[in-house]
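Subject line: Sequence and fold of a protein, written as structure tokens
Body of memo: The sequence and its backbone structure tokens, given next.
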Amino acid sequence: MPVGALVEAGALFGIPGNNVRVALARLLAAGHVARDERGRYRLGASAAPVERRVRSWRELDRATRAWSAGSWIAVHHAESPASQRRADRRERERALRFFGFRPLGPALSLRPDNLRIPVADLRHELVALGLPAADLVARLSELDPATEQRARSLWDSDRLRDRYRERLAELARSEARVAGLAIEQAMVETFLLGRAIIRDLVLDPLLPPAICRVDERQQLAEALRRYDRVGRAAWADFLKRFDVPHFGTPLDAALAGEPRRVAV
């Protein structure tokens, strides 16, 4: 996107243009964004691990497999969180949160072994997101009954399901309301609500049915895919003015079986 588009978009959310430019300069220095010869910005290499996770919400239904109860993916921490620098501890916690891990003890975090991603690839993604390379990532099984029960209770499944239902209702209300809003209001509302629910789904622990029912999560993901099209329509004219691809996504193109301009 050109800087003019970012400044104009920022104004919709009450962000002064100078603030946008200062933020861009800082992001550019950190490698989180990159700039081409035309002065257009895109995400930089250092943002790639997070970008992969953010984009993953579209394919949640492909991210999991049947769970063999009692099988877990565990991360054993080589260094206790208390002894880490605060920034390193935040990065580790973020990496684990992206894949739904919860602490079972001071040196051990785990999640059900129901992800399709192979353990070696999961290890690579966790390290790319900030997990210390010295931490051990491996399968774990045959916990004693008391510990197994404690492991299953690390996630509040009732709270997760309440959140799915709340978000579904929010999407339905907004989708009904957006058609009657001024275009700038529709742009802001779809961006803010869509972003919030994408964050929920990206950070969802993707629990197996034995721990938390999955049908409401699947309904939310499908509802968000519909809402995403509403949001893209609201932003279409704005992005077209700046020659920014805005309708197609990589998943849309794959399902259609034809090339299509994709959103950046």
